[in-house]
From TrEMBL:
Record CDD domains: ETF_alpha (cd01715)
SUPFAM superfamilies for the chain: Adenine nucleotide alpha hydrolases-like, DHS-like NAD/FAD-binding domain
Keyword Cytoplasm: no
Gene3D superfamilies: HUPs (3.40.50.620), TPP-binding domain (3.40.50.1220)
Protein name: Electron transfer flavoprotein subunit alpha
Keywords: Flavoprotein, Transport
Chain segments annotated as coiled-coil in the UniProt record: none
Entry GO MF terms: electron transfer activity; flavin adenine dinucleotide binding
Naturally occurring in which organism (per UniProt): Natrinema altunense (strain JCM 12890 / CGMCC 1.3731 / AJ2)
Length: 318
């Protein structure tokens, strides 16, 4: 039997989507050997978070009430104590800023191997095969693991768990050594662009180098307004300083999973696709029918964006 302990991720009072995705990943792993799925939710409004995490497939949710925001030392201590108590074979953490902060530390503390940024996990009962992408997604590698391990999972690779579960919710009385807490989060400062979080948007209008000039961005803003969508972009637009960094989709930007992603004048380089391939429906507007974005587009408009976008604005505005 293989029990799995998955750790939820939250920030500023909101659970991150990857928390629900790790339920799916953890359930699949546990199912492969008939084990239980435990979820740990640490800090913040843990009872509220636990109620939201109680989705199909979760056996037990362990809440650790301590502070509001992520703290390296609190998470590390709570997770290692939960590991000692529950003896799971696998500890799953998000491959997020938080997860990457504590995963190596708990692996070191527990003397376990750590595999980061996994995009697929397959267990035949004896060996766990963890798949990772390298060279910007051009190469896939596999790592075979026997025994216990700490694994970080990439966001948007597993579907979010749904439904209402019947998990047992238990407060875990972690013995946090306050003297060992080296740093605390005192606040947040958003990078340029205000509070917009493109990873939470349902509808994204995304613009790439095909827009040619900064002043042409107004056309894309008008389309976003007409559709009630959020504006995002490929990296060159951000590198040019035309949009702030928090609008960038991709490997070195944000991972997004909207219902609809409209890629305008974006070629679909692997580093861009890594950030948006989890979108439900992808629409591409591009003059090049052979652009890589066409390989993953559900709908393709092979035409000049300067002709297509004004027509779309006319169609949807008012
Ligand atoms: C380590 C690393 C990390 C990276 N991280 C990211 C990342 O996070 N996000 C990211 O986006 N990129 C990232 N990149 C860059 C990436 O490799 C590409 O260079 C980038 O995604 C290309 O952006 P683009 O599609 O806007 O531009 P281009 O590749 O230049 O594509 C422009 C597209 O517009 C089309 N087009 C031109 N004119 C028109 C028109 N009038 N109407 C319609 N279509 C038109 C063209 O046919 C073309 O397909 C990274 C690269 C590296 C090396």
């Amino acid at each position: 039997m293989t029990d799995v302990l998955a750790v939820a991720d939250h920030r500023r009072g909101e659970l991150r989507d990857v928390s629900y995705e790790s339920i799916t990943a953890g359930r699949q792993l546990a199912d492969e050997t008939g084990g239980d799925l435990h979820i740990a939710v640490i800090s913040g409004t843990v009872d509220d978070f636990a109620a939201k995490l109680n989705r199909d497939g979760v056996d037990t949710i362990h809440t650790v009430s301590h502070g509001e925001e992520f703290n390296h030392d609190v998470y590390s201590q709570a997770i290692t104590q939960l590991y000692d108590e529950l003896a799971p074979q696998y500890v799953l953490t998000p491959n997020s800023v938080n997860g990457l902060d504590y995963a190596p530390a708990i692996a070191n503390e527990l003397d376990l191997p750590v595999v980061t940024d996994t995009v697929d996990l397959d267990n035949d009962g004896e060996t766990l095969v963890a798949t990772r992408e390298m060279y910007g997604g051009k190469v896939e590698t596999t790592t075979e693991l026997e025994g216990d391990a700490v694994i970080t999972i990439r966001g948007a690779e597993w579907p979010a768990a749904e439904g209402t579960g019947d998990a047992t919710i238990e407060a875990f009385d972690a013995d946090i050594d306050e003297d060992a807490i080296g740093s605390t989060v005192n606040g947040f400062e958003e990078v340029g662009g205000g509070d917009v979080d493109i990873s939470e948007a349902d509808l994204l209008v995304s613009v790439g180098r095909g827009i040619e000039e900064e002043e042409n961005l107004d056309l894309i803003r008008d389309l976003a307004d007409a559709l009630g969508a959020t504006l995002s972009s490929s990296r060159p637009i951000v590198d040019n300083g035309w949009l702030p960094k928090n609008r960038q989709v991709g490997q070195s930007g944000k991972v997004v999973t909207p219902d609809v992603y409209i890629a305008i004048g974006i070629s679909g380089a692997v580093q861009h696709v890594a950030g948006m391939k989890g979108s439900d429906t992808i629409v591409a507007i591009n003059t090049d029918p052979n652009a890589p974005i066409m390989d993953i587009a559900d709908y393709a408009i092979v035409d000049d964006l300067f002709d297509v976008v004004p027509e779309l604005i006319d169609e949807f505005d008012g």
